Amino acid sequence: MDNPRELWEKYQPLLGNCLKRFHLYGYWDDAVQVAQMALWEACLRFDSSKGYFPAYARKWINGRMLNWLSRERNWKKMHIFPREEEHEDWVDIIPDPMVQIEDHVEMGNQLNEWLEGLTQREKGCLILNVLQGYTLKEISSYYGVSIWTVAEWKKRGLYKLRKKMNNKSQKTSSKGI
Q1: Would you say the pTM of this structure is higher than 0.70?
Q2: Which residues, 6 or more positions from 85, have their beta carbon under 8 angstroms from its beta carbon?
Q3: What are the sequence ranges of the domains in the chain?
Q4: With CB atoms 3.0 to 4.6 Å apart as the test, which of 69, 92, 144, 145 could cross-link to 149 if both were Cys?
């Protein structure tokens, strides 16, 4: 078939059956579009000498839908969007990391010295994760960013701290020689 619209109209029942199998709540419009594109791609790739088109199209559509659902699930895992009422709870549960710095500074000026070269986000991430025990997922919900972003803040902050510690230890060892 040369016209996608004719193809979709002819195989509408097939598309419907494939989509019902996945129980898509809230994704219906996107899923229909993915299924229609898969049907058109199946039509372009089909070799009539190898079998019956509806069976081939069903397999192709199901495969594309599984791939699409997997990508959607992975994307949602990386991008956490808390509801408004949940976000308000987070504000109450997780204290402001900048206020907590002052509490930890009382333990000694060393912490303040170590955190001096870090950005506000790196400081907040390290204090919440290392000192207060919050998970990266909890911190990402608090800041409204992905887990990977928080992990990057932590990684950069730890890198800067290690670099600073190595510089300090090299200076003290060179003085002893």
Answers
A1: no
A2: none
A3: 4-78, 84-176
A4: 145
For residue 160, what are its two tokens?
A: 């800067």
pLDDT of residue 2: 64
Burial degree of 153 (CB within 10 A; 0-12, 13-18, 19+): buried
163, two tokens? 């670099």
- Helix/strand/coil for 21: coil
pLDDT for the residue 116 = 82
Q: Give the Cα separation of 63 and 53 in Å (integer).
A: 15
Residue 155 has phi, psi (to 5 degrees) of: -60, -45
Q: Which mean pLDDT values do the consecutive 10-residue runs of the chain (177 residues) have? A: 75 83 77 87 86 88 89 76 50 53 55 80 86 86 88 90 79 63
CATH of domain 84-176: 1.10.10.10
Place of tokens 């870090």: 118
The span from the CA of 4 to the CA of 122, in Å, is 52
